[in-house]
Design brief:
Blueprint (H helix, E strand, L loop, with lengths): L1 H21 L12 E5 L5 E4 L1 E10 L5 E10 L9 E7 L1 H11 L11 E2 L3 E4 L5 E9 L12 E8 L4 E2 L5 E9 L4 E11 L5 E3 L3 E9 L2 E6 L8 E4 L2 E4 L5 E5 L5 E6 L10 E4 L6 E3 L4 E9 L7 E13 L2
Parallel strand pairs: 1-10, 3-11
Antiparallel strand pairs: 1-4, 2-3, 4-8, 5-7, 5-9, 6-8, 9-11, 12-14, 12-23, 13-16, 14-15, 15-18, 16-17, 18-19, 20-22, 21-22, 22-23
Amino acid sequence: MKNIKIILLGVFILSLTSCLKEGRMNIDPSYASNVVELANTGDNVTSSGIQGYYSDLGSVAAGASKSFNINVHRTGPGNATKDVVVTLALSQASLDAYNAKNGTNKTIPPSSVFSFPTTVTIKAGTNQTTVEGKVTVSPEFNFNAAYGVPVKVSAVSAGEVISGNYADAVYSFGVRNIYDGAYTGMGTLVDAASSGITGRYPLKAGLVTSGANTVRLYDYAIGGIYHSILSGGSTSYYGSFGVEFNIDASNKVTSVINVYGQPSSNGRSAELDPSGVNTWDPSSKTLKVKYWMNQPSVIAGHRVAFDEVYTYNGVR
């Protein structure tokens, strides 16, 4: 009889475990029903202390917007019998707690960059509503910043309860400009100071977002913002030299700079060659650019001349 009781207890525990594993939402265990919370928004979930959600918003043009989902959920054995009005607010305290718990340094974006509804309604006969937060690549958008939008359930309709565990969430997002992607570079490279240095093409590269209208050339052979070369037939690169292209609204390349300095510590700088096509074709996603690497301490005038075409392969 004792063994039978143990077996029955084990079956009961396993059945409870199975039920718990089926739950898809974050359910506050403090209450059985009428608890309002922020629920999961997708697969990319972090949950160490305050929950965090990440959305890859893809390529966004300057001035354009994309959205992310905010799921507002009401727990309980059934649906709401009347409309439940929920107030959402921005919470710096929630972001501070999230950063402290996860060892991050996320910051709230400028007000021109994001927005979300402050009042939402879970309709009678349902238990969840989804509203959209919006991200805009405004002039104040900083592609190099680690943004996080901390949202908190601050008020609910009478008779409802704010979750003690899941009332806060930090929404972060990845944004790339329209030039960003994986590319193949072809062209010519002439080093006036060293005939033993030649171009290494085809060049597998990424154009990496650095601003709303700028991208940096990431060389996969070297593993960084550099430009690979052949030196005596072997793969090498120019130290302290990596380029950033600036492309204006009319799809013209307006400048090329060396990201390590103009000039860098070894005297290298980048300069656009105005004799080139120097354009971005948005229909084919092709970049044609001609530029120089200057190094006056080695040779007067332009040391290296690049004439290149970068063809889009896909998302990097």
